[in-house]
Specification:
The chain is α/β, with parallel strands linked by helices and 264 residues long. It has a single domain, classed as Rossmann fold, CATH 3.40.50.720. It is 41% helix and 14% strand. It has a seven-stranded parallel beta sheet with strand order 3-2-1-4-5-6-7, sandwiched between helices. Strand 1, helix 1 and strand 2 form a beta-alpha-beta unit. The radius of gyration is 18 Å and the shape is globular. The relative contact order is 0.14. Bound molecules: NADPH dihydro-nicotinamide-adenine-dinucleotide phosphate and 2-hydroxyethylsulfonic acid.
């Protein structure tokens, strides 16, 4: 037995993060930058990515390349990945983070355009990016796919059936991909947080800030940094260790239904 400390550092590793313009994706960019990674950042809001770039370099990123991407657009995903500059093509880690919820309504009263947006982004978008990136990982014999799941994948909460279904799909896709890459060195992890205070609720309620703020009232939610920390931890295990799934909540949450909310 050897007693060497071999904690993974990510110096020079290429990390692609989808949805890096906000919340968990943005926190992942900072956390991977602090590990010395080279960051490939995508989202629709390019101004935010451009703004983050010098800050990420200042906290340790070895390089930052940003590009616009709507993960719902299959042709755009294929083209963006295929046309990355040659020095950015060998993606080591893919963080499939881009995602959203829309609406909190009874299924039989829900808006079908909200459903389309969630399914197209959280399920089909995740599949398109995975399909474009993983063949290169298999070919190079190196890679790690980290998908953003949720406690919502395990217990469906009232008025959230479609969002919860997209995260249940994410879990199945993560499990299936892990089976399909067995025999290669590619790792697959699903990181499944409970409530995290980000723009998630603002997006869910179509910009209603007052309603969004109420979601986090009277309890301590996770922060995006907490989740990024778990993601970087799973990415820095020794190469033979695959963290299949990490379920995490704040101390004020037991599962997707049960909270310790203090009266205000
Ligand atoms: P935010 O709203 O803060 O961030 C969402 C990110 O996804 C943004 O950067 C947004 O970028 C991007 N995004 C949304 N739609 C698309 C699209 N079509 N194409 C590309 N990028 C897109 O929310 P969170 O950080 O909270 O959410 C990130 C992930 O974490 C999601 O998958 C969410 O389901 C998951 N999650 C969130 C939890 C929470 O409580 N907040 C808990 C568990 C999981 P842009 O608009 O610029 O394109
Ligand atoms: C986000 C967490 O429970 O608010 O996936 O939907 S929840």
């Amino acid at each position: 037995m050897t007693y060497d400390i071999v904690m993974g550092k990510l110096n020079g590793s290429i990390v692609l993060i989808t949805g890096a313009s906000s919340g968990i994706g943005e926190a992942c960019a900072i956390a991977f930058a602090q590990e010395g990674a080279r960051l490939l950042l995508s989202a629709r809001r390019m101004d935010r990515l451009e703004e983050a770039k010098p800050k990420l370099l200042s906290v340790g990123a070895e390089g930052v390349h940003v590009f616009p991407l709507d993960v719902r657009d299959r042709a755009a995903v294929e083209s963006a990945i295929a046309n990355l500059p040659s020095e950015w093509q060998a993606i080591d880690i893919l963080v499939n983070n881009a995602g959203l919820s829309r609406g909190l309504e009874k299924l039989y009263e829900g808006k079908t355009q909200d459903w389309d947006e969630m399914i197209d982004t959280n399920v089909k978008g995740l599949l398109y990016v995975t399909r474009a990136v993983v063949p290169g990982m298999v070919k190079r014999g190196k890679g790690h796919v980290i998908n953003l799941g949720s406690t919502a994948s395990e217990i469906t909460y009232p008025n959230g059936a479609v969002y919860c279904a997209t995260k249940a799909a994410e879990l199945s896709i993560s499990d299936g991909l892990r089976e399909d890459v067995l025999g290669t060195p590619v790792r697959v992890t699903s990181v499944d947080p409970g409530m995290v205070e980000t723009d998630f609720s603002l997006v869910r309620f179509h910009g209603d800030a007052e309603r969004a703020a109420k979601v986090y009232q009277g309890l301590i939610p996770l922060t995006p940094t907490d989740v990024a920390d778990a993601i970087v931890w799973s990415a820095t295990r020794p190469a033979h260790v695959n963290i299949a799934r990490m379920v995490m909540t704040s101390i004020d949450q037991a599962n997707s239904l049960l909270f310790n909310r203090k009266q205000q």
